[in-house]
Design brief:
Blueprint: E1 2-6, E2 16-25, E3 28-35, E4 52-56, H1 63-68, E5 76-85, E6 100-103
Antiparallel strand pairs: 1-4, 2-3, 2-5, 5-6
């Protein structure tokens, strides 16, 4: 999955944030990819205001997991969010949630 993030801050961030992406089927997490953006090569405290950052995340599923996809009669979803390193407190969106859910398009 290729994600693009825009640094909306007015000045460089003091904290380092770790992105998380979870592939979910019927509420069951099939795989996750947590870590600093851009494969760990570009931590958030280095981002400049207004900058656009490309962040590629890979999900690795085993054959037994692939055979269970849609077992729960639900569409695949990707759950995205950010957590502050090192305490793992999650960032909140304006609606109070701690992540964004997207439908998976194969």
């Amino acid at each position: 999955v290729t994600l693009y993030w825009r640094a909306m801050n007015q000045k460089p961030l003091k904290d380092n944030w770790v992105g998380y992406a979870q592939l979910v089927d019927g509420g069951h997490v099939l795989d996750r990819n947590d870590g600093p953006p851009a494969g760990g090569l570009y931590q958030t405290f280095k981002w400049q205001p207004g900058e656009l950052i490309k962040d590629e995340r890979t999900f690795n599923l085993q054959d037994w997991q692939l055979s269970k996809i849609n077992k729960y009669n639900d569409t695949l979803k990707i759950y995205l969010g950010w957590a502050r390193s090192p305490d793992w407190s999650r960032a909140k969106l304006p609606d109070g949630s701690d992540g964004l859910t997207l439908d998976w398009q194969q």
